[in-house]
Amino acid sequence: MLREKLKEYNVILASKSPRRQQFFKDLDIDFTIQLKEVEEIYPPELKATAITDFLADLKSKAFLNLSEKDILITSDTIVWLEGIALGKPKDEADAFAMLRALSGKKHQVITSISIKSKRFQKIINDITVVSFKELSDDEINYYIKNYKPYDKAGAYGIQEWIGFIAIDNLEGSYFNVVGLPVQKLYTELMNL
Description:
By secondary structure, this protein is of the alpha/beta class.
């Protein structure tokens, strides 16, 4: 359906995430991938959705010359735990610290999407509440060693081993935790 709806447009996905790219394929969208390096720094006073909204918009600003037919999609995901934003871990120790902090607690996974053309921009976001069981150090180390979650906010992928063994409960979109609130994106694109 989206392929037909968007046939007059050049849909650009500005994401190197293989999960987001797969979602676009699975939605049957004709798209190209264009990447621009952006330093993902946000004002420290921002909280929760304000952070991801800001970063999705910041990524879109790197694309200066959109044509009349272009629709640019940028996105950002964070894990929000007790008032602290967890992005991608820098290294093994950072990944361990994040997973130890998430252990036995609820957190929010927040994703924002910017849909931008020459004429308009809309930023949407989604929040999913995830509950983790208590994790042992052995479980955390096993996951980091075998799955190397350095490209994932909060140092975990729900679709991987850790998701199978650690997640007690999920309130909201599973796909948002994977990296894109697909249903919300679909609705917005169908309403263009």
